[in-house]
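Lab notebook, page 48
Experiment: co-folding of the full assembly
Goal: obtain a model of how the components sit together before planning crosslinking
Operator: M.T.
Materials (sequences as entered):
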Amino acid sequence: MRTTPRVLLTLALLLTALVVQLGFASRLHLPGATPDVVLVTLVALAMRNGSLHGCVAGFLTGLSLDLAPPSDHAVGRWALVLCLVGYLAGLFDDGVDRSALFPVGVVASASVLTTLAYSALGAVIGEPGATWSMVARVLPWAVIYDVVLTPFVFLVVAGLATRVAPDPLRRRSGVR
Amino acid sequence: MRRESRRTRLILALLVLTAFTLISLDYQQTGRTPLHGLRNVASAVFGPIERAAASAVRPVTGFLSGVSHLGEQNRRIAALQAEIDKLRLDNRTSELARNRANELDALLRVASVGQYTIIPARVVSIGPAQDFAWVVTIDAGSRDGIAVDMTVINGDGLVGRTVQVGPWTSTVLLAIDPSFKAGIRLEKTMDIGYVSGEGSAPMQLALLNGLAPINPGDRLVTQGSVGDRPFVPGVPVGTVVAVRATPGSPTKTATVTPFVDFTRLDLVAVVVQPPRTDPRDAVLPPPPKPKPTPTVTVTVTAPPPGTPVQTGPTPTPTPTH
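Observation: model returned without errors.
Model output:
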């Protein structure tokens, strides 16, 4: 069990994703929505490392998103949503004999789930912002951007993961 | 394997509970929440990173937009192309510098006419659209003298107010955010009301006096809050585009186009010291067409019972968080 390098890699990747997301992705002013680099990275890591890894990583990432500027919502909203998404994505192993489209499907579902859950949670706790028409306008764009990001992020995550923290199970079963 | 997944579910439940606890601790609280310190730490950590990222990214985005214009130059020979490329880049950066100078000029004009003392800042990061919150980070914080609930303006008018302040960066709630509310006053008449953000939809104006004369084209300035926080008086807000009759309601509502273009915010300024006297509408840009001398309509109406009209200096529909 080589847990430490894997945890460190996860932290490093998510921190990078966070910086890219906050400093770069939202500055591109793409129409409709913002590419969610953090979400796609989280899903890639969760699918590789499992549910436990996914939900803890999701919680920590969400908490940083809640706290890092600019944020004005109640702390814990992203933490809750990303914790659940990380857990769920971890249930889908991206390993053996899966088609390349499988991660794309998971990311697309995660993208829909995240946007809906985040805005629903906001409505439940009574924070203004998301109305149904706004969500409906943002949602398709969010899914498209996240799906476009998927191959790149998954390649980076897989490449770094096999180099830094090779999974003994994977190697034994002959997958890289 | 069973035990492993049970442990995972236990941890998931714990984390979800923690998140709920955090939300309920932080939920709709203004001022000092237990998480205030945590937020400060986070903005002290992430603020400089975002600032650095923004300054690293600025030349890249400039370069990318330069490259995307090269399509029509394909048939030129390589040397010529390189030269054109270089010249174009030069040209573009000089234009950028000129634009920035213009923005600064406009800011200085607003600041000097309105006698505000301002701290200029650049937008370094923008909240993602999926957050459904219209917030940006600027590269000035408490070390530059910025505090929570200060007015943020640019050369065109009201941008928003500061909501979170870290040592090097602060978060600005934009005027179009659905939780944004600001007390305003009509340009020439003394009528007061408040505007609220509606996200990507136009802003809404509610006038406290339902009988107040208001027409499309009327312009609004901020009314100013008690102690000039969060809003200093006299900042241009926007133009009325449509007035809606709301029979039976004590207030009058209208839609408003803000003066500020929120999709291309770059240089902004935080008002750290309010003007000594209320500049009223002196800060507004000159009206588009020469108007006849405005007749000041003094409407003396007894406010209907229940309407929060005060006669004090500043009734403040101050937004809560």
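Interpretation: Chain A is about 75% helix and 0% strand.
Next step: discuss with group before ordering constructs.
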